Amino acid sequence: MSIPFSNTHYRIPQGFGNLLEGLTREILREQPENIPAFAAAYFENLLEKREKTNFDPAEWGTKVDDRFYNNHAFKETSEEEERENAALKIQAAFRGYLAREEVKKMKSGEAQEEKREENE
Known about the structure:
It is found in: Membrane. This protein is mostly helical. The protein has four helices and no strands.
């Protein structure tokens, strides 16, 4: 008889994934024989560093993740802001068009002057 898998989803505490990534990186780098003992020593060392320097890698990882997931790309904008942004893009495109036309005129004016100089 088989038992279906549970649909329960556990929430990973903030910073925990970061701690496990650090541990995994060190295990892959060191290739220890006794992984549980290595993990215990790794976390003891981490605790000592945190107590001495007041730097908590779990807290730092949480802030980095929070900054990544809550940046401006994920913020919703109102219709008014969208219209304003669209208007700014149109204005910038039109200014670019005018600038390119002016450059074309300047280049054609230089070409005409060179032709006059060659004819003289």
